[in-house]
């Protein structure tokens, strides 16, 4: 594949196991050093999670719980991230996070990788 994500530690917030496995492999195939998958926000210490990764891929909802507060924490810490979600709150998300890419499910793997690479300054935004 490519090395667009070369060496990155990626935090993946995704509650669908098959999608999580696919995205994890996609990131690794594109050079990511590590992918930490979180299926529920209560599984992690938000502060530690934010400080231990380079970039995040955030689903808008994890088991019915909004991830927008976590996304704000990422934003405040200056961590790049993208939203990858099947939820259609794109307008609300764009209003709150105008500079953050929103990749709608179902998405092509290349679209997600390119969005993550762009968030990290490794590729010009589409």
UniProtKB/TrEMBL annotation:
Q: What domain of life does the native source organism fall in?
A: Bacteria
Give the Pfam families listed for this entry: Response_reg (PF00072)
Listed A to Z, the keywords are: Phosphoprotein
Instruction: Domain (Response regulatory): give its ranges.
Output: 9-120
Q: Does the keyword Phosphoprotein apply?
A: yes
Q: Which positions carry 4-aspartylphosphate?
A: 59
User: Can you say what this protein is called?
Assistant: Response regulator
Where does this protein come from, organism-wise?
A: Ollibium composti
């Amino acid at each position: 594949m490519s090395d667009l994500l070369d060496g990155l530690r990626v935090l993946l917030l995704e509650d669908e196991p098959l999608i999580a496995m696919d995205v994890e492999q996609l990131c690794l195939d594109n050079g990511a050093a590590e992918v930490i998958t979180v299926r529920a926000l209560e599984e992690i210490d938000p502060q530690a999670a934010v400080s231990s990764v380079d970039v995040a891929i955030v689903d808008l909802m994890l088991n019915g719980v909004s991830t927008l507060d976590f996304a704000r924490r990422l934003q405040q810490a200056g961590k790049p991230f993208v939203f990858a979600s099947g939820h259609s709150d794109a307008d609300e998300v764009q209003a709150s996070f105008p500079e953050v890419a929103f990749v709608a499910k179902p998405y092509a793997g290349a679209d997600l990788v390119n969005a993550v690479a762009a968030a990290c300054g490794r590729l010009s935004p589409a």
